[in-house]
Design a protein that fits this description.
It contains four helices and two strands; from the N terminus they run H-H-H-E-E-H. By secondary structure, it is an alpha+beta fold. Helix 2 (about 35-45) packs across helix 4 and helix 3 runs antiparallel to helix 4. The two termini are about 50 Å apart.
């Protein structure tokens, strides 16, 4: 159970999807390659979902600021309607023949409206300041998340480096213990 928890934490640190298969080798080679810490941080900054979410929130705040600024401009709206009707009149010509007189009537109506935000000055200014504050907050959150990810990846990298060094120390201890064993066994045999 603890292995699965650590495996999930490792996937999260590496920015992998939770359903990604991650196998951990039980035996280590003699030469363990430690990845470059800067490359690991750069990869995490590109793949971590919380960073893309923070970037999207920043883009939304930037669009909100643009929208708040755009409310200062005049608003032009318009509408167009068309009504087409068919009129048919039945005419009799001197009692001999009947025929239909058909014609179409088309009515076009249009409307254009211009709205100027003359008396909304304080509301517009307040909306722009609020949007600017939201943008600054979103930028700060994105930067903080980038720093958090960088620190987290750096800590994981340092933990990996420490584990590799512990393996080297353990190997040296094993070699020393084997030598002591051979020496003690030789004394015992004597």
């Amino acid at each position: 159970y603890q292995i699965e928890i650590q495996r999930s934490i490792l996937k999260q640190i590496l920015g992998l999807k939770p359903d990604t298969r991650l196998e951990i080798e039980g035996l280590l080679d003699e030469n363990i390659a430690i990845p470059d810490s800067a490359a690991s941080v750069e990869k995490a900054l590109k793949t971590r979902p919380e960073l893309s979410r923070a970037g999207a929130a920043e883009r939304a705040a930037r669009a909100g600021l643009f929208g708040a600024r755009a409310r200062r401009f005049p608003l032009v709206t318009g509408g167009l309607s068309v009504d087409r009707s068919k009129n048919t009149n039945r005419l009799e010509q001197l009692g001999v023949a009947e025929f239909d007189d058909t014609h179409y009537a088309t009515v076009w109506q249009g409307q254009v409206r211009l709205s100027l935000p003359i008396f909304d000055g304080f509301a517009l200014e307040g909306g722009m300041r609020s949007a600017k504050g939201a943008l600054l907050e979103a930028e700060a959150q994105r930067r903080q998340r980038e720093l958090d990810v960088g620190v987290e990846v750096q800590q994981a990298w340092l933990s990996l480096r420490e584990a590799v060094e512990r393996i080297d120390v353990a190997k040296e201890g094993l070699a020393s213990a084997e030598e002591d064993y051979k020496f003690s066994k030789g004394r015992y045999d004597l």
